[in-house]
Amino acid sequence: MGGSGAILLLSWGYVLLVLGWFILHRRWGDGRWQLALLAPFAPHFFWPVLMQVAVAFWLPPPLIWLGVLAVAPPLLIFGWLYADYFGRKAISVSIETEATFSLMTFNIWWQSQQRSTARIPLALGETYGAMPHIVAFQELLPQMARRVAAETAQCYPHQLFDVGEAVAARRLGVISRYALEPLDASHLQAKDFRVQLVRVHTPARPILFYNIHPRATLIVRYLREGGPLGPKVTQSFAQRRVYFEQLLTDIADRREPIV
Fold it and tell me: In this predicted model, what pLDDT tens digit does every residue of 139-192 receive, in sequence order?
């Protein structure tokens, strides 16, 4: 009974941790830097639920219902947060007219070098019968940009890649079925905030398109550097806010349709 009691105690301790995080998340969101750092890892908080289910049915009869009950709060919280990501949804495909166009944005992840990744916009056409008119990429390495260009050139004849020549450069790219005109975005650029600005000449009218990739807070680098973590994270968030304010000001000053 002692072993079962300890397992049950651990299970309910996990429940209290998840509940505590969820309450803080609902109260402050990413308003506190500690919570903001946890946010990307939040989906992984729920992996122990699988172990909870297995353990619940291993417990002796007097405790089994307490074990089953411990599964409910994390499952309910997970459903509240992520239910919309599951279940098949109808995907509406834009009809090709002069007044409509479809857009796909794709953070390709800099580690990805697979041919299948480069062909994802084409795979959408094979699966759903229509490809997006414009595809924006983030975190492109030069070699992956070349692969994307080669794989998609037939369907996307207009391509602009802002990748530079550095091997480790993680940059941006836009491929389009409509003509693209590159515009200067140097006033918005920063080492940790990449912006690509293009004018898309759709059949109806030109549209400005901002392809943006802010760098995440580099918590691992801060840990390696040593010293207090809080000020570095706070400064990172504050700087990113400044970048977005500058971006919004630039958008507000434009006098044409913007995406």
Answer: 888 888 888 888 888 899 999 988 655 444 568 999 999 999 999 988 888 877
Yes or no: say if 198 and 180 are a contact pair by the CB < 8 Å rule: yes
d(CA 149, CA 161): 9
- Rounded Cα–Cα distance for residues 210 and 197 (Å): 5
Tokens of 203: 């059949």
d(CA 19, CA 40): 17
- In contact, 125 and 131? CB cutoff 8 Å: yes
pTM of the model: 0.66
Q: Could you give the CA distance from residue 108 to residue 152 in angstroms, rounded to a whole number?
A: 15
Comparing C-alpha atoms, which of 21, 127, 120 is closest to residue 80? 21
Task: Give the pair of three-digit tokens for residue 174.
Answer: 């836009």
Summarize pLDDT for 71-85 with one digit per residue, the tens. 889 999 999 998 887
Written as six digits, the tokens of 21 are: 């995080």
Residue 150 in 3-state DSSP? Answer: helix
User: Amino acid letter at 76?
Assistant: L
Task: Tell me the domain boundaries of the chain.
Answer: 2-85, 103-253
